[in-house]
Prior knowledge:
The chain has about 350 residues and is mostly beta strands. About 0% of the residues lie in helices and about 40% in strands. The protein is built from no helices and 30 strands. The protein has strands at about 35-40, 40-45, 50-55, 60, 60, 70-75, 80-85, 95-100, 105, 115-120, 125-130, 140-145, 155, 165, 170-175, 195-200, 205, 215-220, 225-230, 235-240, 250, 260-265, 270-275, 275-280, 290, 295, 315-320, 325-330, 335-340, 345. A 4-stranded antiparallel beta sheet has the order 1-2-3-5, with no helix packed on it. It has a 4-stranded antiparallel beta sheet with strand order 6-7-8-9, with no helix packed on it. Strand 22 and strand 23 (about 270-275) form a beta hairpin.
Amino acid sequence: MRRLTAFPLFLLLAGVALAATDRPDLDDMRLLRMPDIHRDTVVFVYAGDLWTVPVSGGDARRLTSSIGFESYPKFSPDGRWIAFSGEYDGNNDVYVMPAEGGEPVRLTYHPGWDRVIDWEPDGERVRFQSARKSHTGRDLQLYTVATDGGLPEPMVLPTGGLSSWNADGQRIAYNRISRENRTWKRYKGGMAQDVWIYDFARNDTRQVTDWVGTDNFPMWRGDTIYFNSDREDGRLNVWAWNERTGEERQLTDHGRYDVKHPSLGVDRIVYENGGWLYTLDLTREDPDPERLQIAVRSDNVWARPAWRSVDDWVRGADIGPDGNRAVIGARGEIFTVPAEKGPVRNLTATAGVREREAAW
């Protein structure tokens, strides 16, 4: 019996149709991510580009169209600029651009990734997170870089990530550990996040939360620090901690999906839940989440039907009983390939569905 020892991967240059089978509701789109808000305008990420929309919803306006991925947009304190992480040259660096649209200006040039966290209160520097001096890739530090150029400057905190200044700019609420992009649900291990306060004048650090699970995305407004927590039912929701009274209270109660990427504006918090965007009006005593109905009319170039080489996407294989052919999972499809000569057959050819772990 012949043995299939090395199947020709180059034969997997098969055509894969990527056309979507279901038409989305363009007037009420989902998959809207990483929002930020300034007064009556929201910026968010959709399909790797930046978009803005009124806080009342409606038609979104596209700001970027690069093939690189833009992420973590943040309005400047005056709302005139947007800082973001741009993957324009194969690496995440810090950029700024006019909030009305225009050419992005690059601020960092390090080969490691730089993630925008927020602006400094003066509006002249951008705070970002980087692993440029980390030996493990886990102990990440905060830096600031001026919008008019110059080298980044490290902050005094030995580790830090998500963070927010108080009103007078003397104290900062922050997470010492960065785990918010992990896919671990209901995690309660050594990388669980808590909210801390660092007082620059006193050189003093104080722990604010001590929940065994996740407390992250601190947002400081007045005498209240808002944050994300999974302390109720294992779902991330927005909570508030009052500095004067020490009282903690839950502001949102989403039971199906986690609250993702909450961000504080002047008087509102915007966040993602289930692919939609919501806002919380903090001028109300008990704010109710309001879902934004947003129309995104994109050319959706990444969803166009195309031919793709799948030989670099092989994820699992099995040999047939007679050793003449093998079954392979590659880029979400199931193929059979010959030992030497013969056709490559796509057995599934299903757009919008991923098949894997094929066994003969």
